[in-house]
Amino acid sequence: MLTIDDIHVAVNGKEIIKGLTLAIRPGETHAVMGPNGSGKSTLSYFLAGREGYELTAGRVLFRGEDVAGLSPDQRVARGMFLAMQYPVEIPGVATMTFLRTALNAQRRARGEKELDASSFLKLVRKHAAELNISDDMLKRPLNAGFSGGEKKRLEILQMTLFAPLFAVLDETDSGLDIDALKLVADGVNRMKSPERSLLVITHYQRLLSHIVPDHVHVLAGGRIVKSGGKELALELEARGYDHIIKAAA
Amino acid sequence: MGVALAIDGLKAAAATRAAIHGVPHRRMEDWRYSDLRRLVPELPQAAEALAADQAQALVAQDAFAGVAAIRLVFANGRFVPALSALSPAPALQIADLGQGLPDWAVPHFGQVKHPVHAPMADMALAGMMGGVAIRISHNYRLEAPLHLCFVNAGEGARHARVLIVLETNAHATLIESHSGGRFCNMATELVLGANATLTQLRHAPMAAGETSVHTLSAAIHAGAALNQFVMAEGAGFARHETGLSFLGRSARAQLSGVSVLSGEGHADMTTIADHAVRQCTSDQMFKAVAGGKSRAIYQGRVIVRPGADGTDSRQLAKALLASPHAEADAKPELEIHADDVTCSHGAAVGDLDADALFYLMARGIPVAQARAMLTEAFLAEVTSRLPEGAAADIIRARISAALVDAGAP
Question: Quick check: A92 and B376 CB within 8 A?
Fold first, then answer.
């Protein structure tokens, strides 16, 4: 599904990711854990194709295609998705308009028929109910004045609507209380399938009790210093990053 | 008849005042961003009159030609009675100032105070080529909008004057449209009697090489309300100056504007709100999208005189630079001489928010479409102030079309 081959990524001329290699097969859920400043968010923005995140060496293949020349929207049309740590508030853009514009832009890019207003509305209502998202919330401007939990639920609603083949969840647990965390994790778990892969980026283990990974990687200093199964997350939680990173060095 | 002499006297006095200062220039504080003298060192000679069929053809092309309205046509600065509705109802009187000043207009015409010196309004009177006086009687609600339709073609100058008087509790909508012409100078005096309301929509497209100056002087009595929306667009030069004098309690004015500029376009939105009495509200919001090498300007002065307690004044000016060579200037000014007032002002100039742009693209929306969505969103706060109706819909459509020209699709 996704092959990250010894990538080096610089932001504003400063190298943040320094030789990272990772292979994710269809159906797998991987977790990347790391302390603050280890390069977690850089990795997620880079994979989404954000301007200013420069690949200086290595390559990324998505289903065999080098993504280097693809803009963020082209990556989405091919089935990639990033659920953001800080979803952006955009007053003046209505949430429903945004959702429909985004979904139809992806469909258009793939040569599929656009959804008409009524089929779109049905689809949104169905998935919104699963995530406890009210009509009122959907009527408001995009993310404007949303609570942290509302923003994250809207991210997962988008992920559900767009049905990507590969999704990165960047610190999806931040700012969530226990109930909201469960709601969001259930939403993600419903998406799991043998064709779909997930990359969960997180600082804390707690999200991984709900979204159980097949593989856990520890990111430090811009590279993966240790990989293991889901038990590695528990070990990190118990012993802290410092211990693991020092032991791996 | 003394009334024609009255106009001549006013014109002579205005000519004397205009001659002292000449064409305004950047060393005059109110004109520091708009150096009209550099563009027009000497005012051009009066434009030639348009042939009737040419004027009629231009009226048919007007953006608002399809709107059902009481239409008053000015062609190259001259009022054209043959293409206009004159006194269509007893409660609505329309007088051609070329025929002299009607008695009811004598106390108002040339008498509405502008809060600061307005040299171009003097020049519009001194060089007046055409003018009308409009009166809407007490308690009358004009259902159809009034449409002042200014059609222009060719070289030369146009100077026009308009007086609009809404008597107590009269209500109306005014559409102003302007097209073409090398140099246009128009000045409007507006008197809103107690509890009268006027909604004013002005659309002023300016092509490269065209220059226009609009001066509105409004006297607003107790409980009356002015709701103004100005849209400037194009690659020419435009100055829109509005001076408000609040003369009675609880009067309100909402001034809104959108400038969408391309090429070497220059739009200067200048306002002066003079709060001399208590409990009045002035609420201003101006937004600009500047492409090419254009320049968007807002300068707004709010004066709160001693005793004008309870004044509520808001000024917001924001500009979006759609090109690295565009420029925006904002100068909100407050002069407050009363204690119990609420005055706020804000200004911002910038590019589209990079985080928002990335967010939309990361959801599959291509860059051009994402930029268009964010630009419309930037303007939504002010365009949401447009009223319902066909004329406002035309302005909305013009804004969308102009954004494409400005390179901010």
Answer: yes
